[in-house]
């Protein structure tokens, strides 16, 4: 066994983003010398795909998503956190000592683990979507709605989240088109009624987005296809909000850590404690409701303090 594999860390953080980096800041300042596996591609989380962030406290002029994440990482490293751009292949979480195995086979051991793997928004998988993410394509109206004042936008989806996104966007947008594949919503009755009563919202039934168009690297419109055999048509909009759900990233531990009915990590009350002693969760992987950078950061703080208490008791 190598020296690296023989060392037992106080805490390993799997994942980065606001939750993972905040947990790293707090555990580093507690002299726990956290080891963070940020991911080779996903380091920084969803905010790496976000342009302007205007609702994170402390930045009155706003800040770019990648810059905010780099600042958080640098702050954690300043206090002694070690951040590695590595992907975790396997987790052994039971027992007093946890084992984290990386792709490639190298193993690390720790007394505690914080799961901050986040969640992934479901995508449409249509031409133009990936290229224009952060440039008119968004999965968060709360984050980006302000930038679409007096513009026409599309919300894709038929559930409660889609209705919430659409109604929030009416505060800024001139017109909100809700594109839904069926002729009735999946949303709860009260949410559907509220959305239908809003004069700024127009429903496009039995319709799907086929392609997202761009002009000068920004969304300029969408091609809509019919699910009932009608002809395609073009709709001029400057924003596309995808609200067809998200999936917590729990693949590494879903058979060991208890999950909720929604598939999120289940924790005890307002803590970050999972059903396994020494294993904690933070951020969007446990949060099906708020999913904001600031709430994820707060969750990372909770996890770090819970880890401190756990290690002190053990």
Automatic annotation (TrEMBL):
- FAD/NAD(P)-binding domain ranges (all copies): 9-300
Per the UniProt record, which EC number(s) apply here?
1.8.1.9
One Pfam family from the record: Pyr_redox_2
Gene3D superfamilies this protein is in? FAD/NAD(P)-binding domain
Which SUPFAM superfamilies does this entry report, sorted A to Z?
A: FAD/NAD(P)-binding domain
Q: Which InterPro entries match?
A: FAD/NAD-bd_sf (IPR036188), FAD/NAD-binding_dom (IPR023753), Ferredoxin-NADP_redctase_2 (IPR050097), Pyr_nucl-diS_OxRdtase_2_AS (IPR008255), Thioredox_Rdtase (IPR005982)
For this UniProt record, the keywords arranged alphabetically read as follows: Disulfide bond, FAD, Flavoprotein, NADP, Oxidoreductase, Redox-active center
So what does this thing catalyse?
Answer: [thioredoxin]-dithiol + NADP(+) = [thioredoxin]-disulfide + NADPH + H(+)
Cofactors demanded by this protein: FAD
> What does the record's cofactor remark say about binding?
Binds 1 FAD per subunit.
Quote one Gene Ontology molecular function term: thioredoxin-disulfide reductase (NADPH) activity
Whom does it interact with, and what assembly results? Homodimer.
Query: NCBIfam families recorded for this chain?
Result: TRX_reduct
The record's comment on protein family reads:
Belongs to the class-II pyridine nucleotide-disulfide oxidoreductase family.
Q: Identify this protein by name.
A: Thioredoxin reductase
Source organism of the structure: Micrococcoides hystricis
Q: What is the lineage of its organism?
A: Bacteria, Bacillati, Actinomycetota, Actinomycetes, Micrococcales
Q: Which gene encodes it?
A: trxB
């Amino acid at each position: 066994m190598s020296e690296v594999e023989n060392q037992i860390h106080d805490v390993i953080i799997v994942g980065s983003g606001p939750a993972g980096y905040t947990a790293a800041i707090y555990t580093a300042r507690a002299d726990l010398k956290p080891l963070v596996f940020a991911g080779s591609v996903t380091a920084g989380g969803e905010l790496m795909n976000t342009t302007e962030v205007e609702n994170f406290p402390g930045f009155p002029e706003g800040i770019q998503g990648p810059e905010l994440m780099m600042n958080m990482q640098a702050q954690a490293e300043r206090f002694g956190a070690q951040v590695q751009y590595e992907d975790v292949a396997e987790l052994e979480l039971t027992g007093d000592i946890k084992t984290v195995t990386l792709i490639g086979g190298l193993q690390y051991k720790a007394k505690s683990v914080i799961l901050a793997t986040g969640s992934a928004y479901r995508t449409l998988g249509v031409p133009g979507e990936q290229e224009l993410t952060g440039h008119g394509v968004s999965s968060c109206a709360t984050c980006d709605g302000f930038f679409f004042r007096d513009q026409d936008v599309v919300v894709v989806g038929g559930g409660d989240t889609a209705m919430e996104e659409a109604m929030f966007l009416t505060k800024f947008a001139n017109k909100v088109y809700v594109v839904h594949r069926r002729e009735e919503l999946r949303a709860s009755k009260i949410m559907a009624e509220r959305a239908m009563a809003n004069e700024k919202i127009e429903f496009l039934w039995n319709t799907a987005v086929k392609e997202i168009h761009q002009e000068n690297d920004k969304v300029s419109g969408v091609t809509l296809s019919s699910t009932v055999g009608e002809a395609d048509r073009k709709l001029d909009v400057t924003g596309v909000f995808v609200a067809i759900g998200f999936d917590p990233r729990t693949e590494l531990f879903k058979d060991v850590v208890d999950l909720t009915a929604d598939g999120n990590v289940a924790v005890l009350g307002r803590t970050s404690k999972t059903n396994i002693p020494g294993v904690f969760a933070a951020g969007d992987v446990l949060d099906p409701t708020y999913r904001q950078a600031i709430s994820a950061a707060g969750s990372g703080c909770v996890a770090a303090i819970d880890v401190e208490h756990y290690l002190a008791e053990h």
